[in-house]
Amino acid sequence: MIKSGILGVLFFMSIIGFNNAPNFVIEYHELATKEAELSYIKKYKNSKEVSIQAYVVSLQMKQAKYKTMPWSKLKVFNTNKSKLEELILKNPNNVHLRYVRLVIQENTPSILGYTSSIKKDKQFLKKVLQKKDSVSYLHTYIINNTSL
């Protein structure tokens, strides 16, 4: 009886206690449509928090996918790629920025030539995965969404 009670408490804690990911991370990973992406961008675009900006900019880059003209696609992608690179330049140790950039670079068509930081970001994120810290909630996302 006590054993099952302890197991129940541990199960409940694993559901609510150990998944301490912020809403902006959870919401980002649940996005399934263009409309949901646009809604996310609208909701968070004015945030001053760099970690949130990482996800917003990545979705703005993804909007290139929905453009019909190749030059429009390229313009949207490159404009937001520059924003992402600037954020990383100013915040090189932000795990969210490095994670988002790795996901983008691993999933972007090679013709765009956006692969220059894959090795560097993988090294950075491997070190992050070895730590138990305030961003440990990202470990599962990193493992599931990148080649690590």
Report what the structure shows.
There is one protein chain. Helix content is 68%, strand content 0%. It has 148 residues and is mostly helical. The longest helix has 21 residues, at 70-90. 24% of the residues are buried. Mean pLDDT is 88; it is low at 1-18.
Sum this structure up briefly.
It is built from eight helices and no strands. It has helices at 2-16, 23-30, 34-44, 50-62, 70-90, 95-107, 118-129, 138-145. The radius of gyration is 18 Å and the shape is globular.
Shape: globular
Multimeric state: single chain
| Number of E-state strands | 0
Q: What are the secondary-structure elements, in order, as H or E?
A: HHHHHHHH
| Stretches with pLDDT under 50, minimum 5 residues | 1-18
Helix content: 55-70%
Tell me the structural class. Answer: mainly alpha
Largest sheet: none
**Rounded mean pLDDT score:** 88
Q: Tell me the Rg in angstroms.
A: 18 Å
Q: Helix tally?
A: 8
Work out the strand percent: under 5%
Give the termini distance in whole angstroms.
41 Å
Layout of helices and strands, plus pairs?
Elements: H1 2-16, H2 23-30, H3 34-44, H4 50-62, H5 70-90, H6 95-107, H7 118-129, H8 138-145
Helix pairs in contact: 3-4, 4-5, 4-6, 6-7
Descriptive tags:
globular; 8 helices; mainly alpha; 148 residues
